[in-house]
Amino acid sequence: DPTKYEFLQVTSPRPGVAQVTLHRPRALNALSTPLITELNASLTHINASPSIGCVVLTGSEKAFAAGADIKEMAPLTFSQAYTTSFIESWSQLTSTLKKPLIAAVSGHALGGGCELALMADVLYCTASANFGQPEIKLGTIPGAGGSQRLTRAIGKSRAMELILTGRFFSGDEAERWGVAARSFPTHEALMEGALATAETIAGYSRVAVMAAKEVVNKSQDLALRDGVEYERRVFHSLFGSHDQKIGMKAFAEKKNPEWSHE
Ligand code: HXC
């Protein structure tokens, strides 16, 4: 049963929405390799589930995730890390899942936890959430994209300061800097906000939603001219979908569209 995991809880609290809750409370959701393996398995399953249109990834009120598992990393040698491509499996998260992923961050999101949140398509947090890249204090550096994604999100000077000092930053700051799309006063408000947004997204054409996610993400990799051209190609391709006909016909007839998701 793919919904039975040791370190995750997977539920569907709203129509079309999957909620994946990191659940390793004794270690503040430290992201061990077995946990990431389960997360990849759950997202692969969700990606293939026609009934799911959007995913909310969250932790507990106390911790989204306090980082990669320091106890697992402590004895690793260079050769082991290099030959096993340690941490590479985290990248599956962004490559397998074509449906939007909303991270709902409460409490600690440190090191790999911060990097995991930065991989999400939309980041929501509580105002008091505790973000940071404290790897420097452990004698190492971010290893799951933090130096790249945080720098793109907040600019070089701020990212450099945070990564070189290990200083934590709040959910409030994350929102002001544009790392988070929104911050919420409480954990409850955060979850309500994340699930409501996920339900809205899950109510649209799956084809259009996936295409929208794909083209926005391309903007992170491509130069502007290439990105605009890429967007136009994908836009053209959507004239081949049923849902484009359904959506535009419904508008003209002043009806609600009934998506075929094709
Ligand atoms: C393994 C961890 C952990 C972690 C917490 N724990 N974070 N175990 N890896 N990243 C464990 C603690 O050892 C402890 O276990 C239990 O969780 C509760 O933690 P406490 O420290 O007792 O809780 P508290 O006093 O509330 O402090 C919370 C905290 C602190 C400030 C978040 O736990 C902390 O500083 N954690 C490490 C944060 C960090 O440096 N993260 C970056 C990791 S490096 P016991 O058994 O003692 O009860 C990283 C590299 C990324 O992520 C690069 C590749 C992805």
UniProtKB/TrEMBL annotation:
The keyword Lyase applies. It holds the Pfam family ECH_1. The keyword Lipid metabolism applies. GO terms for molecular function: enoyl-CoA hydratase activity. GO terms for biological process: fatty acid beta-oxidation. SUPFAM superfamilies: ClpP/crotonase. InterPro entries: ClpP/crotonase-like_dom_sf, Enoyl-CoA_hyd/isom_CS, Enoyl-CoA_hydra/iso, Enoyl-CoA_hydra_C. Keywords: Fatty acid metabolism, Lipid metabolism, Lyase. Its EC number is 4.2.1.17. GO terms for cellular component: mitochondrion. PANTHER family: ENOYL-COA HYDRATASE, MITOCHONDRIAL, ENOYL-COA HYDRATASE-RELATED. Belongs to the enoyl-CoA hydratase/isomerase family. This is Probable enoyl-CoA hydratase, mitochondrial. It comes from Podospora didyma.
